[in-house]
Fold each of these.
Amino acid sequence: MRRNRALFATVTATMTALALAACGSGSTPGSADAASEGAGGNDLGLVQDGVLTVATEGTYRPFTFHDASGELVGYDVEVAEAVAEKLDLEVRFQETQWDAIFAGLDAGRFDTIANQVSITPEREEKYVFTQPYTISRGVIVVRDDDDSVSSFEDLQGKVTAQSLTSNWRALAEESGAQVEAVEGWAQAVTLLEQQRVDATINDSLTFLDYVKERPDAPIKVAAETEETSQSAFVVTPEREALGEAIDGALDELRAEGVLTELSEKYFGEDVSSE
């Protein structure tokens, strides 16, 4: 769903800019206002210098959730931690409900969001996005013994289980399917496995997470959308320098294979690139 990516910049370039700004203001290397080593200076517009404050829900498995011990974990959490380490910043997570997460960003209560935020044209008009760290597609999921569906056109006359508030419902109806209303993925896949519906459309990441936890689940992907949904860190225009610094960190993490490793840890395959 993302149409454009934010400008890419390396961490080195950000460090250089910070150093020049510090010299121009007359700060000394040891002063409290001097840019710290890495990207921890005030020129990044951080809420607290030296700390990357990240908003996340904490209730969105497998991206951001609490494990059995109560620790905040997940794919987005670990990506944010790796980015902060690259920038030589402490990371602090601020758990926030989704409905209030952008308002908190606008109010300056945190520096960025790591919560599978997809870039849309509407959001790009107001915010700055980094390069994506997650890329997914919509998929048709059917029982593993059903070969009658291999495209969205094949959903004509079929019954699909969909949440009435999701975009996937509209796609199912556009494909000619009859929609059985459900509350979410868990109910949809239950109806599918019980052979009470023919298919369900959902995000590929949801499917990958499910089969990773349940490798013997009798379901498979029958078809996928051509269009992708790409998720990234998001900042306000006032913190564009921070967005560019995060971009540089993501470049390094991608080149080092860290994003691939985290993807495979949580999804069983690389979801960090096309």
Amino acid sequence: MNLFAKLLARKEAGKPVRVGLIGAGKFGSMFLAQARKLPAIHIAGIADLSPDRARANLAFVDWKEEAYSAAHLDDACAKNTTFITDDASVLITDERIDIIIEATGDPLIAVDHIIAALDAGKDVINVTVEADAFCGPGLAHRAKAAGQIYSMAYGDQPALVCDLVDWARTCGFSVMAAGRGHKWMPHYRLSTPETVWDHWGLTKEQAERGRLNPKMFNAFLDGSKPAIESAAIANACRLTVPEQGLAFPSGSVDDIPQLMRPKSVGGVLDGPGMVEVISSLTPHGEPIAYDIRKGVWVCIEADTDYIKNCFEEYKVTTDDSGRYSCLYKRWHLIGLELGMSVASVAVRGEATGAAVCFNADVAAVAKTALHVGTILDGEGGATIYGGLRPAATSVAAGYLPLGLANKARLIRPVSPDQVLTWDDVELDTNRLAFQLRRETEALLS
């Protein structure tokens, strides 16, 4: 409750928190729109494969040109300005930078950056949750061994759910379920970047105005991102996952307590302590009033009659038994909220969520019949979507992790909705990300 005060104190002491941002896309730009308002936070450098695009995005979010005109990092650190480069290693290896924010969106590259930053003595905030989904426990393990902090990004839904779960448990409540909302119909899993705006609720013109990436947004629509984020939540909060993937039950905010309870008492859960995603559409595709599409929630249980009576006395919305209730945030503001992670890591030495177990995994599932020789186009593309599975099931069956499936070549044909395995593809396994995946699998034992 006093992060801002601690940042002010650090500013007054003349001890800036120097940050290196890798990736100035949508999430990075949203953070940059807020960053210069945060006391003690200095964006010393930005690395992007296209420095011109980074500059264009800075101008787009109202940065003055003189604020990002530093000729080199020395100049930026001396004058409290920002250096722009296409070489992430410049930021990773410089001892003056305290925190690296990884926001490229490319899970293989993200692992390279994260491990290099940890090895260089940097704390890391990982925006690229796709990497967390297939090797987050391994990354957290590496960070602990290095004596550094590895954190998920506040603003994205997993870190916000971690916050709610922490609130519930610290108050003494049992967590029945936790998760996020989503606009979902079963056929959305087959959507492609060509069809995404037809379902999303934006026109093509609105999407282009916002510089929105259709493949990225399709990853949300087709269920891949909900699966990825649910995996991150499960692994950070020690929650379990449905055996056959997310159910996407339909409901409003006030329906959450009725839905998110075990089947034995009328809900949809196989048992207590699970992740799930609530759909903002009815099974017939009609919008549900007061939905949780853009938000997060945690469902809690009153495990004694006294607590149940307290819910009743204080007019808390519950299920029909009076024992289950929820706390929620209806919106998440993505990169606009990332300052919470930066402040928490910098002044408290605490992550805003990180994996503590390997309960959940995200497998690649075929969107259509695919023939031998097909090159998979990864998350949000036209060939595969992500399906949430228990990690033990996924590893034992040899399922192909979604985050490692991009550009893999099929060596066996697959059917629609078939879960792909390592044996179905040919791919280069020499990248560090594959090593981290194996280290993560080893944590199961």
